[in-house]
Amino acid sequence: MLLHIIARGKIARSPEGEMLDRYAKRITWPFRHSELPDVGGKVPPPAHTPVREVLLDERGKLMSSEEFAALLGRWRDEGVRECRFLIGAADGHGDEARAQADHLLCFGRMTWPHLMVRAMLAEQLWRATAILAGHPYHRSG
Length: 141
Fold this sequence. Notes:
Blueprint: E1 2-8, H1 15-26, E2 31-36, E3 51-62, H2 65-77, E4 82-87, H3 95-100, E5 103-106, H4 114-133
Parallel strand pairs: 1-2, 1-4, 3-4, 3-5
GO cellular component, one term: cytoplasm
Keywords: Cytoplasm, Methyltransferase, rRNA processing, S-adenosyl-L-methionine, Transferase
Subcellular location: Cytoplasm
């Protein structure tokens, strides 16, 4: 299953971009990172079907790393070919996008910088795939 981060704005060369790259290289599943302008631009049509869309949103569900891994594992086992993680611009996602999403995910009730969210998401994707593979990186306490 392709794990695809689609984010508004440019990350360019930055500490957050370096962190994103560091974790992206560790993900053993197919992975892609795409950027859209802050305003306008369209999410590209899916290369694979079926697709699941996860919006990073402050109204989303708080999940443990194990719950997140289980969700990805279930979708993979159901034959989902691509899982898209959409990170909005400064004003987040509109009501229509939230209503159409398969899942709303929240990294806490605090507001996080969009660049940092990309790196945090990449780490959680690596952690989830490591959990599913039985890799010792994740320690549950």
